[in-house]
Structure to design on (374 residues):
């Protein structure tokens, strides 16, 4: 598969991922929320993908993500719905957001946000918050602890800062208390 | 969810053939899904593509039928369907093109329509979460390489050599800025994680 997408940095990243599909495993210093989600879901990986190698599953994932982004873009650029539909839409988004992490719910449902606001933001990891499972605060803290144990001090500290921004009132375990 | 029947799959195949034959530059997957929906193809599930199962099923049945269409076009020597990751292009038939299919593992990925019923939303979410793992890793790798003034392809020994050069150059004991050294150290830590 060859592509001409030099003008699209996102597609360039996708392409690079595709080329590097033989990477044996993802590196550990990753966005902790995504990492935790992946770890939590590992046991649920489709068994039928196993014999098809990482490249095939990556192709599948890239295809899904590409369609997902286009669908999101189409929705974002669609005209604002009528008031009643907007209310229903907000209700639906609340339902989806509440099934994700509390912080993400708060982000999606900020009081100032109009009913027709996009369901998800543009940043990739956040863009899929309604789709990608997001860890609970406890899981996030556990992941930070694991990063520390692995000697990933910078990643752990950065993740802890993000955690405290999103959950300023959540009690930290003693070993993570400043 | 019930599997699409033979008539529904045939209707989708016809709709895709018509759409692609009239688009010389090719169409991306999203456009093909929308085109099939507009044509009333029941094999493509209705509903939002933001919903994991709808997304997966629409993608899977689309590519199942695309590979089926490609095989039929080869058999009839009518055209060559170039199925790429981001675009599908209808091209003139080229003798021997079908031989390449023997080396293409992707048709096998889409061969079993029973996966439309056995797939779960959690499995789709897992695929996407794993994808974002790699996406973020790739982005961070590029950023870290940029800090060191490097570009892929580059191996770890070369990264370490470059790190030593820069660390010597920017070490505060040699008049360098501490924050620059911190950035260089962070970049190396990110890249080192890629090789563990």
């Amino acid at each position: 598969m060859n592509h001409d997408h030099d003008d699209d940095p996102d597609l360039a990243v996708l392409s690079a991922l595709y080329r590097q599909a033989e990477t044996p495993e993802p590196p550990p210093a990753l966005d902790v929320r995504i990492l935790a989600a992946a770890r939590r879901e590992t046991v649920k990986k489709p068994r039928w993908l196993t014999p098809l190698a990482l490249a095939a599953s990556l192709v599948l994932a890239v295809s899904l993500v590409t369609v997902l982004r286009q669908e999101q873009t189409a929705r974002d650029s669609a005209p604002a719905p009528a008031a009643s539909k907007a209310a229903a839409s907000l209700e639906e988004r609340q339902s989806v957001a509440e099934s994700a992490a509390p912080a993400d719910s708060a982000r999606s449902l900020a009081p100032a946000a109009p009913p027709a606001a996009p369901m998800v933001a543009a940043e990739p990891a956040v863009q899929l918050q309604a789709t990608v499972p997001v860890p609970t605060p406890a899981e996030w803290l556990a992941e930070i602890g694991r990063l520390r144990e692995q000697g990933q001090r910078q990643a752990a500290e950065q993740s802890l800062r993000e955690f405290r921004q999103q959950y300023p009132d959540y009690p930290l375990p003693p070993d993570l208390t400043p | 969810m019930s599997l699409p029947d033979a008539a529904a799959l045939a209707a989708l195949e016809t709709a895709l053939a018509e759409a692609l034959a009239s688009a010389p530059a090719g169409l991306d997957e999203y456009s093909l899904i929308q085109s099939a929906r507009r044509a009333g193809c029941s094999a493509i599930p209705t509903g939002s593509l933001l919903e994991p199962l709808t997304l997966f099923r629409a993608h899977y049945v689309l590519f199942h039928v695309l590979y089926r269409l490609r095989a039929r076009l080869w058999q009839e020597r009518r055209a060559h369907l170039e199925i790429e990751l981001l675009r599908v292009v209808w091209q003139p038939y080229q003798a021997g093109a079908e031989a390449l299919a023997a080396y293409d593992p992707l048709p096998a990925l889409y061969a079993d329509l029973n996966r439309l019923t056995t797939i779960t939303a959690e499995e789709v979410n897992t695929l996407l979460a794993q994808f974002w793992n790699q996406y973020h890793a790739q982005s961070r790798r590029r950023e870290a390489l940029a800090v060191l003034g490097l570009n892929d392809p580059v191996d770890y020994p070369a990264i370490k050599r470059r790190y030593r050069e820069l660390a010597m150059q920017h070490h505060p004991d040699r008049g360098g800025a501490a924050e620059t050294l911190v950035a260089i150290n962070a970049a190396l830590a990110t890249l080192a994680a890629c090789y563990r």
